[in-house]
Amino acid sequence: MIRRAAMFAPEIGGRGAGSGTPVADGTNGLRPSAGPAAGERALAGEAPGGKVSGDPASATGGAVAADGSAMAAPDGRRLVIAVDGPAAAGKGTLARALAGCLGLPYLDTGLLYRVVGRRMLDAGLDPSADASGEAATLRAEDLARGDLRTPEVDRAASRVAGQPAVRAALLQFQRSFGAAHGAVLDGRDIGTVIFPDAAVKLFISASHRARAERRWLQLNAHRSPADGEREAEIAAVEAELVARDAADSGREVAPLRAADDAVRIDTDRLDADAVLAEALRIVRARVG
Ligand code: DC
After folding, report:
1. What is the mean predicted confidence (pLDDT) over 69-84?
2. Pocket lining: 215 vs ligand 1, CB cutoff 6 Å
3. Which end of the chain has the least Cβ crowding within 10 Å, N or C?
4. What percent of the chain shows pLDDT beyond 90?
């Protein structure tokens, strides 16, 4: 049974621009946008206001505490929150909402690999071939492309993500993004490789079936096929997810896994508000 009103709302056509949307800085590099925002209320325990995904666009950037100082990790550094987990487990929904609540920039690191995979396809190249050149020349505007969430790009992104040279080329950008103002980053290796000393690490998981239903809804929000057809399509999506999990978890470099000090949240039986509330509770416990 699929509940279209599930709190994990389908995200059609890519994810919305938010406070953490990388913007061109006039060089080939990327930087997070910056500006005032209030994460204080969320950290003080206030409910997120009933808004499922938060609105990073209205919280325009760097995390600023009530006294005007930047929100910091317990050791005084910028607050970095790592949100890792497999595809369609709800980590993007959570990470974006968390960023909105805390007024932190948000980076969906999967987009970086998607752009590299997309550019390999555009160039008529096999995504398994060396893609480090595409990674090294990635540009901010690429992240806003509307063609990064097709099944073809899913596969291409997974292939390029398995290449050590691609990961190396994308590493510094991710670290700079988080170090600039603090950030919420979601991906597969944020807590293990990119920010092994992040103040808060969350690992988001869900059953294959729940993830397949969510991904199917993302891709088919405007269709209502007959039950049998829908079931077959969901089964196909599930098979793709299982294959991608195997590739992401089984690769030698930066495999998908929970950091030893990550807190796990299983989203199967939680709606997005409940996941966000749980995540905020964990952040409060770590950051105060
Ligand atoms: O989260 P996503 O489905 O958009 O990610 C696309 C691909 O990139 C997926 O195969 C996993 C990979 N990826 C990764 O290896 N490391 C990350 N930090 C983010 C994504």
Report:
1. 82
2. no
3. N
4. 62
Instruction: Locate 203 and state its tokens.
Output: 């690992």
For the chain, list the domains and their CATH numbers. Answer: 3-287 (3.40.50.300)
- Structure-block tokens of residue 264: 């796990």
pLDDT in tens, 154-182: 899 999 999 999 999 999 989 999 999 99
DSSP string, 44-99: TT---TT-SS--TTTS-SS-B-TTSSBPB-TTSSB-EEEEE-STTSSHHHHHHHHH
DSSP string computed for 221-262:
TT----HHHHHHHHHHHHHHHHHHHHHHHH-SSS-S---TTP
Q: Does the C-beta of 188 come closer than 6 Å to ligand 1? A: yes
19 alpha carbon to ligand 1 midpoint, in Å?
21
Q: 88 C-alpha vs ligand 1 centroid, how far in Å?
A: 11
Distance (Å) from CA 44 to ligand 1 centroid: 32
Residues facing 92 on adjacent strands: none
CA angle centred on 115, ends 256 and 132, rounded to 5°: 75
Q: How far is the CA of 110 from the centre of ligand 1 (A)?
A: 4
| Contact yes or no for 178/71 (Cβ under 8 A) | no
DSSP code at position 206: -
Question: Which of 113, 154, 155, 171 is the best mutation target for the ligand 1 pocket, counting ligand atoms within 8 Å of the beta carbon and taking the most?
Answer: 113
Give the amino acid at 111: L
C-alpha–C-alpha distance, residues 93 and 51, integer Å: 11
- What helix, strand, coil percent values describe the chain, rounded to 5? 45, 10, 45
